[in-house]
Amino acid sequence: MTTNSESGPGATADPEHNEAPSADRTESDHGPGGDAAAGPDTDADDGDGAFDDSFDDAEGLDPDSGAHAHGAAPAPGGILSAETFSIIGLMLVGALLSGWRATEVVPSLLAQTQEGVISGMMVAEGVVALLAVASGLISLTLAGAATRPWARWIATATVVVGALLFLVAAGAYLQVPEPQPQPQMPVPGA
After folding, report:
1. N or C: which end of the chain has fewer CB within 10 A?
2. What count of other Cβ atoms lies within 10 Å of the Cβ of residue 185?
3. Mind listing the pLDDT tens digit for each residue in 93-103?
4. Total structural domains in the chain?
């Protein structure tokens, strides 16, 4: 708990810092101990009593650097936000790494030979890995200044791991041998 030296010892400070100038605050109230130069200049006051309007108050961003000027919280993500696509990519990569059965069941129902089943599994896993990479790239494309940092981290990891999983699936697909012709069984009595 912090104390406010203006109100006397033991008084609690206001938990919210009001960025708007008020008539009852003077220039000497800006910093600790009453000196405006002693602390950080949080009110963007240039010393002559006029406030600097260079910050975009609608988004809380500095127009020159794009950084959060006022420590504003990121905007909530929607259904088609960068956060959503990073989580989709993470789930797809997680499904591949945990041994998702759909990439095994579908090819085993459709293929005629054992080589066809294995090839189908590798193709299915490669497609899921490409979907994860695409989801991560969409997330990174949609990311803006208000995107949460964890969404960028997850999207980047999804792209890297998904690309590696695709390369593994492609390499395994290339290693599957061609189906061999079945030998003819002798016909009894012929």
Report:
1. C
2. 6
3. 999 988 878 77
4. 1
